Amino acid sequence: DIVDVLLRLQRQAALAVLTNKPLDATRAILDGLDLGRFFGARVLGGDGPFPRKPDRSGLVHLMEGAGVAPDETLLVGDSVVDLRTAHAAGAHICLARYGFGFQGLPAEELSESDRVLDGPADLLALATS
């Protein structure tokens, strides 16, 4: 469902990718899956000019580039690193229960405003609320 979800989300939000993986590999994967079109130049890799997550610098740069405030930003991730990145930047976090890094996520680090989703389509309801 990810393509349909991204098609709908791109109409209402600036979409970006922030990963600790190398940028070239990230772009190759996104383009290979025909997903790069949703993010354009807003893709930051772990080998770029900003420190790796959970440092907030990359996320802050993406928010500033999109002209959005932290309270208007939703980081979708699957790991404690993503959780800590969003918290450090003052952004909202939505954790993908189906993601690679969700297992072992420390429940004590979740705040009341943090959200969890079970599939990509669940993001649509969350993004419009």
Question: What does it look like?
Answer:
The protein is an alpha/beta fold and 129 residues long. Helix content is 34%, strand content 12%. The chain has helices at residues 2-9, 23-32, 57-66, 80-89, 122-127; strands at residues 17-18, 43-44, 74-77, 92-96, 115-117. The strands form two sheets. Strands 3-4-5 form a three-stranded parallel sheet. A two-stranded parallel sheet has the order 1-2. Strand 1, helix 2 (23-32) and strand 2 (43-44) form a beta-alpha-beta unit. The two termini are 20 Å apart. The model has no long low-confidence stretch (mean pLDDT 94).
Brief write-up:
By secondary structure, the chain is α/β, with parallel strands linked by helices. It has helices spanning 2-9, 23-32, 57-66, 80-89, 122-127, and strands at residues 17-18, 43-44, 74-77, 92-96, 115-117.
Question: What is the β-strand count?
Answer: 5
The helix tally amounts to 5
* Largest beta sheet: strand ordering: 3-4-5
The N- and C-terminal alpha carbons lie at a distance of 20 Å
Structural class category: alpha/beta
Main sheet summary = 3 strands, parallel
Strand content: 5-15%
Mean pLDDT: 94
Helix content: 25-40%
